[in-house]
Specification:
single chain, alpha/beta, eight-stranded mixed sheet, binds adenosine-5'-diphosphate, binds aspartic acid, binds magnesium ion
Length: 401
């Protein structure tokens, strides 16, 4: 007998037939004598549809607090429907919203961090031998306001429960049967991995492989929760995410792309000490996360600083820069949202020279210009024109895998 946490994504519960499919998968484990806690996301495209509804009211979207109030409704629908399906099949079940399941978060609306999961209620329900269905992606801050955890946040809800409840297994069910070397829907030659390390998975997830949310991987690593990513439609083993994996012969493990990127250039800055500090200090005060940074060589007493941010933060970045007009002089700001980031990830590249040049050669052969480059021990990213995103991923993937 084990305690199993299972998370089902939006497509896995998209309609009544799929809800019953998921209900049966849950019951299979319960019937074997296991305790089962299930985390679910909103059905199908519900979250996107709710965002569109907000835009019908206010083009810029509502305040972040009200967005959380709205978006959390998606998960409320799926937990109730899934619980009803399990009831109909004759098994004891209870659905819980994030706050009922003990999720305490900070107050960063629409991107809140989990502070703690109070497990009392979960434990009570499990003791009563109930299957517990928890709404993913949501929690409560210290003012009793509902928060959400950022897109894809249900994965993190599942890992948080697995960590807090010391579960034996945390299974993330989705619409593909595991983690691949590239998005299997885009790259036909992508290969499924039996296992992948937390570090490599964290990089892939952060760099755009949406199959797992990056915060969920970060948390799994921190609390040593072994994850399995698997299909909700087919019964077969998936991909295990854990600390140590067999060394692979391949140099790189995967290719990811991220379209949620904006490139911002501050042109004609004074070429004196302290400018970069003042600029990035202000951006951090506006809570803008910076990714790649490029500074041009100074010429005639001026220089340009270019950096990338996620597209949804580009307005905040511009606001920060405009608020600095009196302390920093610059000619103008340019915002380019038609860019995308393509990255390769692999622990093997640390000890093998020539990986970067091989990646650049693949892009050169495909006629794709590189605008910016950034590297770390286990990844290399390039910024390119968004219209080449898919062809770049395929070209790079085929060069290595
Ligand atoms: P869910 O609704 O179950 O959370 P997501 O849409 O968030 O599902 O994530 C699953 C999707 O991630 C897949 O349908 C696939 O297209 C995409 N994906 C991107 N990169 C990868 C990868 N490297 N391996 C597997 N799937 C990937
Ligand atoms: N429903 C949320 C989203 O679409 C959370 C999730 O799917 O994990 O982002
Ligand atoms: Mg997801």
């Amino acid at each position: 007998m084990a305690l199993i946490v299972k998370k089902f994504g939006g497509s896995s519960v998209a309609n009544a037939e799929r809800v019953f499919n998921v209900a049966n998968r849950i019951i299979d484990d319960y019937k074997k004598g296991n305790d089962v806690i299930v985390v679910v996301s909103a059905q199908g495209d519900t979250t996107d549809d709710l965002i569109d509804k907000a835009k019908e009211i206010n083009e810029k979207g509502g305040s972040k607090r009200e967005m959380d109030m709205l978006l959390s409704a998606g998960e409320q629908i799926s937990i109730a429907l899934l619980a009803m399906a399990i009831e109909k099949l004759g098994y004891p079940v209870i659905s819980l919203l994030g706050w009922q399941a003990g999720f305490e978060t900070d107050s960063h609306h629409t991107f809140a961090r989990i502070k703690k999961v109070n497990t009392e209620r979960l434990k009570n329900e499990i003791e009563k031998k109930k299957i517990v269905i928890v709404a993913g992606f949501q929690g409560l801050n210290r003012y009793d306001d509902i928060t959400t955890l950022g897109r894809g946040g249900s994965d993190t809800s599942a890992v948080a429960i697995a960590a807090a409840m010391k579960a034996d297994l945390c299974q993330i069910y989705t619409d593909v049967d595991g983690v691949y070397s590239a998005d299997p829907r885009k790259v036909k030659t992508a290969q499924k991995m039996d296992e992948i390390s937390y570090d490599e998975m964290l990089e892939l997830a952060t760099l755009g492989a949406q199959v797992l949310n990056n915060r969920s991987v970060e948390m799994a690593k921190k609390y040593n929760v072994e994850l399995e990513v698997l299909s909700s439609l087919e019964v077969k083993p998936g991909t295990i995410v854990k600390e140590k994996v067999k060394m692979e012969k391949t140099l790189i493990r995967g290719v990811a792309k991220d379209n949620n990127v904006a490139c911002i250039s501050v042109v004609g800055l004074e070429d004196t000490p302290g400018i970069a500090f003042k600029l990035f200090n202000k951006l951090s005060q506006y809570k803008v996360n910076i990714d790649i940074i490029l500074q041009s060589v100074g010429r005639d007493g001026t220089k340009d600083i270019t950096f990338t941010v996620s597209r949804d933060q580009s307005a905040d970045a511009v606001a920060a820069l405009e608020a600095m007009k009196d302390i920093l002089t610059y000619k103008n700001i340019k915002v380019d949202e038609s860019v995308c980031k393509v990255s390769i990830v692999g622990a093997g590249m640390e000890s093998n020279p020539g990986v970067a040049s091989k990646m650049f050669e693949a892009l050169y052969d495909a006629g794709i210009n590189i605008q910016m480059i950034s590297t770390s021990e286990i990844k290399i990213s390039v910024l390119i024109d968004a219209k080449y995103a898919d062809s770049a991923v395929s070209a790079v993937h085929d060069k290595f895998i």
